[in-house]
């Protein structure tokens, strides 16, 4: 149970990462991924990377610069421009549905204008899911200068699109529906220089 805890990625650049294990029964036609990050990086960095054998950027949350997030599904991406962070925690949720190709992006509990991405696509189920590195091959192929350094917390993955109420609940750390990956019951393995520590403040 990682309640009120964080992963601290200590080095920059880094070869460290965290492997997450999700119980995926079938391919995803809808999903929502949420997480909280705290960093002073200004270079590009990967937050959440979900790769299959055929597509290394099956799902990717990537921050190429402080005022931009990229959300990938099946190797294609949409960009969400954001205010440059005030060196504080940032909570992001990204959701996608195959039927409409609608991609939603929420930052700190607020929605951004929706965009279109990969309508009719299906996300594969046999996945390597990593925090802190971007995969260029299944479970590997890292560029150290895309690595994350800082603190990560509150990582979730659902096989549905969350309602606006639940998106806000995720930001506020309230009760959430059962998830494929849930911070309070996370199955994970640390690879390299990552330390689990209590959160410094609420």
Automatic annotation (TrEMBL):
Pfam families in UniProt: Pentaxin (PF00354)
GO cellular component: extracellular space
Cited InterPro entries: ConA-like_dom_sf, Pentaxin_CS, Pentraxin_domain, PTX_dom
GO BP terms, alphabetized: acute-phase response; innate immune response
Major place of residence: secreted
Matching SUPFAM superfamilies: Concanavalin A-like lectins/glucanases (SSF49899)
Subcellular localization(s) per the UniProt record: Secreted
Keywords from the UniProt entry: Acute phase, Calcium, Disulfide bond, Metal-binding, Secreted, Signal
Disulfide bonds: 34-93
Domain Pentraxin (PTX) positions: 3-202
Cofactor info, note text: Binds 2 calcium ions per subunit.
SMART domains: PTX
GO MF, one example: complement component C1q complex binding
Highest taxon, organism lineage: Eukaryota
Cofactor needs: Ca(2+)
Residue ranges crossing the lipid bilayer per the database entry: none
Oligomer status and interactors: Homopentamer. Pentaxin (or pentraxin) have a discoid arrangement of 5 non-covalently bound subunits.
Similarity comment text for this entry: Belongs to the pentraxin family.
Protein name in the entry: Pentraxin family member
Organism (species): Aegithalos caudatus
Gene name of this polypeptide: Ptx2
